[in-house]
TrEMBL record:
The gene is rlmC. The keyword Translocase does not apply. It comes from Shewanella salipaludis. S-adenosyl-L-methionine binds at residues 226, 255, 276, 323. Catalyzes the formation of 5-methyl-uridine at position 747 (m5U747) in 23S rRNA. Keywords: 4Fe-4S, Iron, Iron-sulfur, Metal-binding, Methyltransferase, rRNA processing, S-adenosyl-L-methionine, Transferase. HAMAP family: 23SrRNA_methyltr_RlmC (MF_01012). InterPro entries: 23SrRNA_MeTrfase_RlmC (IPR011825), MeTrfase_TrmA_AS (IPR030390), MeTrfase_TrmA_CS (IPR030391), SAM-dependent_MTases_sf (IPR029063), U5_MeTrfase_fam (IPR010280). GO terms for molecular function: 4 iron, 4 sulfur cluster binding; iron ion binding; rRNA (uridine-C5-)-methyltransferase activity. Pfam families: tRNA_U5-meth_tr (PF05958). This is 23S rRNA (uracil(747)-C(5))-methyltransferase RlmC. Its EC number is 2.1.1.189.
């Protein structure tokens, strides 16, 4: 496995990504296309998938920046302890440093380079999958857009290398005071999973503060958090505007994560129930609600389908927000929603195929508005916000 260093030269400016052009990283399969063409293709796909439904209005798509839009880097540790590489294995098996990937803001690219040096200085041997040897599996870096602060995580095979990280850390933190949270995740299993159960904090701070619009949000190591902050902030703002038209007295936010949707739509006189499977995300959502002075809120770590099954239709809210993972909400929850029959359902989906399947199982609603959010530029993926209103 030979290290490959690619620097973007001025002569490469006609090329969107030199890594892509040289076949070293193919993650952004549509990067050669102008953004407008990418979004046009996504719009066509969405409209084809929803062709069997009567959609009253498609609103203009919300576009992303072309570069520097991503707040999270998942770097595979490769190479050797004396010459570590943070990036990925190319399709032909070369170790490629992705510290210059243009999806990350400039300050994040600089920090990724510094982290490569950190790994070398600390003498952390990258884990070699073929030999099941080495310690460092991944470096995960998340940036808050509000203040340009960072959460830095090292995924290690065992506890062995923690002392070496602790030895080098004071120097790094003195140089980069914007790194607010550092942790080690122990992933002992010889498998392609990203992280393990055990998280060890090396800083006092255990959450990264973020703010979208006027809503304080908190990022914890294992909680889901949106990866394109500018588009996510617009998504939440749009949700807030659409929900406000209904003047709801009560809301449910199912699959709420750290609470982005519900907290944007809540107000002192609206009661909000947030449901999410990850307890750490729920702790973050509660902190945000407290910081916003919201009292009529209840966030619980539960399975959304079980929660809905256990609720009585008499206690149904005026409006239900759902934002499930890629698999969608599934038939059982669709049935519960149809039985509850709230005045409106706001569905935010990162997978239009499962969205279309779910819609076929939700009865008695008209699709009044659909909007595409280009949350994942250069890829096949996108986010869709869709408003369902109960038919009279
Ligand atoms: C696409 S994320 C959305 C999170 C949040 N709405 C946001 O805007 O950041 C989906 C969330 O569903 C959660 N989840 C997955 N399965 C779940 C289940 N069965 N019940 C409740 N939440 C679940 C995940 O942990 C994740 O936080
Ligand atoms: S992830 Fe970065 S390096 Fe890879 S293709 Fe996309 S822009 Fe290029």
């Amino acid at each position: 496995m030979s290290p490959v260093w690619v620097r973007i030269q001025p002569s490469d400016l006609a090329v969107k990504c030199a890594y892509f052009e040289s076949g070293l990283c193919l993650s952004c399969r549509h990067i050669r296309l102008p953004m407008a063409e990418q979004v046009a293709a996504k719009t066509r796909e969405l409209q084809a998938l929803l062709a069997n439904f009567a959609v009253q209005a498609y609103l203009p798509p919300v576009l992303s920046a072309e570069t520097a839009f991503r707040n999270k880097a998942k770097m595979v540790a490769l190479g050797a302890a004396h010459q570590p590489i943070l990036g990925l294995l190319s399709p032909s098996g070369e170790a490629v440093s992705l510290c210059d990937c243009s999806l990350y803001p400039d300050d994040m690219q600089r920090l990724l380079h510094r982290l490569e040096a950190f790994v070398r200085q600390a003498g952390l041997p990258p884990y070699q999958v073929s030999k099941a040897k080495g310690e460092l599996k991944f470096v995960l870096l998340t940036r808050s857009q509000a203040k340009g602060e960072y959460m830095l995580r090292f995924v290690l095979r065992s506890h062995q290398a923690i002392a070496r990280i602790e030895r080098e850390l004071p120097k790094l933190l003195a140089e980069y005071p914007q790194i607010k949270l550092v942790s080690v995740n122990i992933q002992p299993v010889h498998m392609a999973i990203l992280e393990g159960e055990e998280e060890i904090f090396l800083t006092r701070q255990t959450r990264l503060e973020e703010r979208f619009n006027d809503v304080p949000l908190y990022i914890r190591p294992k909680s889901f958090f949106q990866t394109n902050p500018q588009v996510a902030a617009q998504l939440y703002r749009t949700a807030r505007d659409w929900v406000a038209e209904f003047k709801p007295a009560s809301l449910w936010d199912l699959f709420c994560g750290v609470g982005g949707f519900g907290l944007h739509c809540a107000a002192k006189d609206i009661s909000l129930t947030g449901i999410e499977i990850e307890a750490e995300a729920i702790a973050c959502a509660k902190m945000s609600a407290a910081a916003m002075g919201l009292e009529k809120v209840s966030f619980s770590a539960l399975d959304s389908t079980d929660f809905a099954r256990g609720e009585s239709a008499a206690d149904k809210p005026d409006l239900i927000i759902v934002n499930p993972p890629r698999r969608g909400i599934g038939e059982a929850l669709c049935r519960s929603l149809s039985e509850f029959a709230p005045r409106a359902i706001l569905y935010s989906s990162c997978n239009p195929k499962t969205l279309a399947k779910d819609l076929a199982h939700i009865q008695g609603y008209a699709i009044t508005k659909v909007q595409l959010f280009d949350m994942f530029p250069h890829t096949d993926h996108f986010e869709v916000l869709l408003m369902l209103e109960r038919e009279a």
